[in-house]
Amino acid sequence: MTQSSRRARALSPLATSAIAVALVGVTAGTALADAPAAAGPAKDVTRSAAAAGRHRPTPAAPFFYLTGILPSGQMYVYMPDGKGGFDDRSGVAVWPHLRYEVSIDPDLTGWQDGAYQVMDDGTLNLWRGGRLKKVATGWGRYNVAFSPGTLGHAKHPDLLARDRQGVLWRFQTRADGTLAPRVEVGTGFDRFTQVTGKGD
What is the spatial distance between Cα 167 and Cα 185, in angstroms, rounded to a whole number? Predict the structure, then answer.
């Protein structure tokens, strides 16, 4: 297989992935719809050992892409180069009214194959398998969200979010992407510009 064909294959469940690059400072509803996204990625990213820099991902050491989103909604993807850096950016989608996105590995395969999206109006959507699904409303109250893994050894990774008062909340995710009721983790997290983590 040639380098170019490997890189082409490296670009197929990518739309399903995103860590919004709002790296500086920056409830639970039920799914109402499961419809194709109106503005989705222009291209996808497939699971490729070449794209992972010959690293075979595991849930403990996953392969995630870095995604940047401009105020216009234009999304760019930066693929890891396997050497601690990133390849040149690729424009993959336009998501109007997207505030930020959280990459996830719902099935704990080690591959990034989904993303929760927080929209300007506080809607929380799940983007997975080429489809956009409304999961909850009221997420305008949170200014940071991330998925550090399965903190309680659940079957699916947790979603953590910090509200504007500095309280950190944990949401257990379900197989269909919906969220269990939130549980308080702690207070005082407003002292930090950003909160993140990976692993149990």
Answer: 7
